[in-house]
């Protein structure tokens, strides 16, 4: 499932982002949705691009620039302003140094090199969910309070449903009544079943019943929400492990995906969240929500570098269709080419 497709243009193109990112083949509902999302992703990354693209352009006040230590230092400082962290920024600096040191370069050459390097650092990321050989595929969704879990579940469910998959949602955030209501509204919009527990019920029992229901009705996916928690709250982290264990008891091998929803506006804080959650909850992938409101989209890079956690989806707004499957090529292009 990829509804944010990579563009197929030549290496030297400097395209208008909205049109040039259009899918190579058009026609299917999937792809029509994709082309809308492509301009959305470019729009979503606008803030990050403003920091990165504009900053890098500013390095080139004159025609070309000599690539020396001064230039490389300035480049590095500008890269890390997007919260991409020192490791990934260093790799980009080294690549630029390797290719151009001692030479006068033009903006386009440097942008091209940076884009390629970002692509290659993220090349293993893609927006695909794991799939259980015999349904249901169980997806557990975790993250800190307010990161966008419930909204992301709604958007993901909408996408799966629109593509012919049946699903059951589990309102595992039994702590916050509004979260249950919110998920119930999403289920109503999508037209899928939802399992809820009483307020304060054991979330593990809701998770168990959700998987049970999905098996009973033969659903393709069971998607289970959880209450927001801080990665430092060890009792609540243990609760996630219990939820996992109980799910596995009902369906051995499940959950097949544990998606960590990170708020893109959190920048470097998202890194400590990724660390705490991936250790305690065995996360398999990231949903980077609220990319539309963030200038820190570069944070995708250190998360991949440090935790080998692929970004699977990005959230680009609060509406039902405001989510895109992650694609490194489109991401790198949208980040730099404006
Ligand atoms: N702009 C924007 N807003 C988003 C996105 N995803 C979620 N939001 C908003 O972020 C806020 C929090 O989203 P929720 O889905 O309620 O977050 P949550 O993680 O379930 O929250 P808790 O249950 O309190 O932990 C809401 O106002 C959402 O509408 C996104 O991709 N873009």
UniProtKB/TrEMBL annotation:
Residues 1-33 are annotated as: Disordered. Its main location: membrane. Residues 310-323 form the SRP54-type proteins GTP-binding domain. InterPro entries: AAA+_ATPase (IPR003593), P-loop_NTPase (IPR027417), Signal_recog_particl_SRP54_hlx (IPR013822), SR_rcpt_FtsY (IPR004390), SRP/SRP_N (IPR036225), SRP54_GTPase_dom (IPR000897), SRP54_N_sf (IPR042101). GO terms for molecular function: GTP binding; GTPase activity; signal recognition particle binding. Keywords: Cell membrane, Cytoplasm, GTP-binding, Hydrolase, Membrane, Nucleotide-binding, Receptor. It is found in: Cell membrane; Cytoplasm. Pfam families: SRP54. It is a peripheral membrane protein. It is an enzyme of class 3 (hydrolase). It comes from the Bacteria. One of its GO terms (cellular component) is cytoplasm. GO terms for biological process: SRP-dependent cotranslational protein targeting to membrane. Part of the signal recognition particle protein translocation system, which is composed of SRP and FtsY. Belongs to the GTP-binding SRP family. FtsY subfamily. NCBIfam families: ftsY. Involved in targeting and insertion of nascent membrane proteins into the cytoplasmic membrane. Acts as a receptor for the complex formed by the signal recognition particle (SRP) and the ribosome-nascent chain (RNC). This is Signal recognition particle receptor FtsY. It comes from Rhodopirellula sallentina SM41.
């Amino acid at each position: 499932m990829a509804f944010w497709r990579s563009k197929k243009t030549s290496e030297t193109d400097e395209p208008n982002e909205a049109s040039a990112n259009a899918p190579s083949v058009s026609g299917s509902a999937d792809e029509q949705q994709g082309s809308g999302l492509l301009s959305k992703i470019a729009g979503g990354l606008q803030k990050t691009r403003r920091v990165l693209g504009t900053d890098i352009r500013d390095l080139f006040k004159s025609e070309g620039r000599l690539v020396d230590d001064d230039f490389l230092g300035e480049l590095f400082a500008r890269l890390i302003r997007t919260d991409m962290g020192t490791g990934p920024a260093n790799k980009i600096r080294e690549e630029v140094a390797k290719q151009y040191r001692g030479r006068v370069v033009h903006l386009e050459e440097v942008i091209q090199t940076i884009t390629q390097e970002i692509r290659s650092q993220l090349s293993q990321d893609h927006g695909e969910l794991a799939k259980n050989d015999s349904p249901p595929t169980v997806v557990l969704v975790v993250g800190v309070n307010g990161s966008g879990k419930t909204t992301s579940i709604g958007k993901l469910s909408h996408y799966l449903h629109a593509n012919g998959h049946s699903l059951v949602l589990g309102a595992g955030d039994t702590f916050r009544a509004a979260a249950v209501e919110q998920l119930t509204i999403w289920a109503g919009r999508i037209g899928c079943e939802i399992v809820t527990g009483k307020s304060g019920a054991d979330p593990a029992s809701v998770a168990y019943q959700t998987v049970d229901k999905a098996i009973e009705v033969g659903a393709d996916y069971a998607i289970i929400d959880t209450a927001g928690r801080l990665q430092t709250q060890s009792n609540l982290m243990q609760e996630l492990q219990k939820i996992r264990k109980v799910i596995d008891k009902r369906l051995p091998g499940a959950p097949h995906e544990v998606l960590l929803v990170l708020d893109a506006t959190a920048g470097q804080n998202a890194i400590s969240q990724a660390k705490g959650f991936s250790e305690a909850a065995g996360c398999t992938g990231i949903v980077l929500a609220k990319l539309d409101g963030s200038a820190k989209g570069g944070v995708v890079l250190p998360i991949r570098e440090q935790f080998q956690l692929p970004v699977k989806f990005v959230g680009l707004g609060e509406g039902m269709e405001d989510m895109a499957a992650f694609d490194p090529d489109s991401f790198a292009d949208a980040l730099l080419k404006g």
